[in-house]
Amino acid sequence: MGRGSVADIGTDHALLPIYLVQRGHPRALASDIKEGPCQRARTNIYTYGLHGKIKVVCCPGLDAVDDFKPDNIVIAGMGGEMIASILAASSYPKASKCRLVLQPQSMQDVLRRYLGDNGFVIEKENVVLDGGKYYQLISAVYDGVVRQFTDPEYKLGALNLKRASDNPTDADIGWLGGQLANAKRRIAGRLETCNDTPEQKRDIELASVIEKILSKVE
Question: At what angle do helices 170-190 and 198-215 cross, to 10 degrees?
Fold first, then answer.
């Protein structure tokens, strides 16, 4: 993430804006659609003495970013489909070419497809293990170039797969092992009833890609 201003969408307790401002970001926007989280955010911000640097706005999606003009937008802890719909409802990410830092909890393929179809380049991807769960992180910027990927790349991330193939982290290996087990379970569950479906073919391709990567680290 760049060192400029930050908008945290779906901020809840505003812990991320507080953390970022404490570490040098000049100002932040803490936005949430519900008043309860916004009030918790205000309380925490005042507790840390940062009410002069962090603004709290209770509104849907990116409604507040046009006035705040952040250099970075963070949307974390939502499904990929929801994140894509939030981005699609605002012209700011494209017009400003701000950096997007996204953490989809599910439907990562839907989010990556939206980014590729709408001219956003994925510059960085990472997988982290926290509290026993694996999370995919995506950093993207608008450049106007439409991109397409394979089904495994939409689901797991082209940059994640390249890193895992060339120089995997422990998190990469554990995450891919879990993804492989899930794909094989879905494949086995369809064998007797719907073995020749697009979903089955996608899972077979996904399992093949992961097995090829993991074979290099065994």
Answer: 150
